[in-house]
Each structure stands twice: as C-alpha cells, then as structure tokens.
Description:
Elements: E1 2-7, E2 13-22, E3 28-37, H1 41-44, E4 53-60, E5 73-79, E6 85-90, E7 93-98, E8 105-110, E9 116-121, E10 127-132
Antiparallel strand pairs: 1-2, 2-3, 4-5, 5-8, 6-7, 6-9, 9-10
Amino acid sequence: MVVGYGRNRKGREVLGSDGFQQNEAGKWEHLTSGGKSWSPRQRWDMQDARDALHFRIGGSSGISPFDDRREFSFAVFMCGPAVASVEVDRRLGMRTADVSAGPGWLTVLWTPDDPVSVAAYTAIGQQSFLWTSQNMLA
C-alpha cells in the first residue's frame, strides 16, 4: 500500500492511495487506487475536534475469485493539531507515533485476523480519541 499527497491530473491537492501485490514472477501489480481532496492547511486551521483523529480515506485489498491476494484493510487519518502522539495497538504489539509536528497523516493497515485499535493523546498525555477497526473485507 502506498499513500501519498500531491496534485492530481486536474491540479487539485489530493491524498491518495494505491495498492500493489507482488506476483509469482516478482513483479508488482497494481490492484486498487483512490483519492480524496485535502490540503495541509486543514490540520492547523481545524476548529472542531482539534484533539481527535479524522478519518480521511480507507479501503481494503478486496477478494478476487481469480487470484490469491493477501487480505488487508487500511485507514488514513488526519491528526487534529492538539494530538501529540498516537498509539497503534495490534495483537503483534503496540507502536507509538509522535505526530506533534508535520502534516499529521497516519496510515494504519490490518488483516482480518489481526484487528487494530488507535488511540490519540494530547501533549499532557490525556487520551482524547479511540478508534477500533472493523472487518472491511466482509
């Protein structure tokens, strides 16, 4: 999965994603893509829910009757300007990301057998947001 920010063919700023899978010959095949308008100013100018994560784009690898694909889902969040850190908790362990500076994008991937929860914290360590994955592959 590749998530990026840039201008689309129409010149609009977008947050987009592209999903790839490596085939038996070792080549990467494009499976899916999507995009949503977004500007970096939106994070810092945000008026509501400044201490929350805001879902921006998400999806899944999908299921194909024709080929084997590893099933996964993903979600991209914009961190409110008052969010200082984010904890991503999965069965395989927990990771913490410092999101106090920068554009504030956070991408989370999970598989059907390894769901994820995401918690946001303010600069004083107070939990301000909690999100739990749902099985988007159903």
